[in-house]
Amino acid sequence: MRKALFLVSILSSSCFYSQNFGAINEILEKIENKYKKMTDASDYTINNKKFVLLEEFSDHSERHILEFGADDKITLIELIDDKATGQTYSNIFSGDFMRKRNAISVRANYLEGKQIASPIIYNLYLMNANNMWYLKDINNSKRWIENNKLIKKK
After folding, report:
1. Interatomic CA distance for residues 13 and 104, integer angstroms
2. What is the pLDDT of residue 44?
3. Are the C-beta atoms of residues 127 and 36 closer than 8 Å to each other?
4. I need a labelling partner for 20 at 20 to 30 A (CA). Which of 14, 37, 58, 74 fits?
5. pLDDT tens digits, 93-134
6. Which of 38, 37, 64 is nearest to 51 (CA)?
7. What pLDDT, on the 0 to 100 scale, is given for residue 154?
8. Which of 82, 83, 78 is nearest to 63 (CA)?
């Protein structure tokens, strides 16, 4: 008797929740349309632009600077600040990128001029919010903000 009652309650609750998924999807679509950030960026050029990613950890902080060159070349500068010693370490990667509308694929396969065995690869999506361009990493949702937006105007 308990098993039958439990089974009936599960089936009725799943039917109740499945009816609400349509309403939830409608609400999500309204929110996406209201705050839509994914505009077509075909006219926006990323050549000779820099994007910055800042990350804080308990023992160190990292700054990644991604600079796009004129002929599909990139330079990735990785600055690591050790909080215990106060020293800064840097790595300079170079490579290339491919762009198709808003999607950008970056491959950094050289570390300070020497080829590395496993390249650093980023799959990024170019987005705009309040006239601020940024790159969103598709894999982990980290945001690379355009460098000139980080500089405060006096």
Report:
1. 44
2. 84
3. no
4. 37
5. 999 999 988 889 999 999 988 998 999 999 998 888 777 788
6. 64
7. 46
8. 78
Residue ranges, the chain, pLDDT below 70: 2-39, 149-154
Q: Is the dihedral of CA 41, 46, 52, 53 positive or negative?
A: positive
Residue for token pair 């980290």:
142
- pLDDT of 92: 93
Question: Comparing C-alpha atoms, which of 67, 120, 123, 75 is closest to residue 99?
Answer: 123
Q: How many residues does the chain have?
A: 154
Q: Which residues pair with 47 in a beta bridge?
A: none
| CA distance linking residue 57 with residue 63, whole number of Å | 11
Q: What is the DSSP string of the chain?
A: -HHHHHHHHHHHHHHHHHHHHHHHHHHHHHHHHHT------TT---TT-EEEEEEE-SSEEEEEEEEE-TTSEEEEEEEEEETTT--EEEEEEEEEEEEETTEEEEEEEEETTEEEEEEEEEEEEEEEETTEEEEEETTT--EEEEGGGTSPP-
- The label of the residue with tokens 């300079």 reads 92
Sign of CA dihedral 121, 127, 130, 133: positive
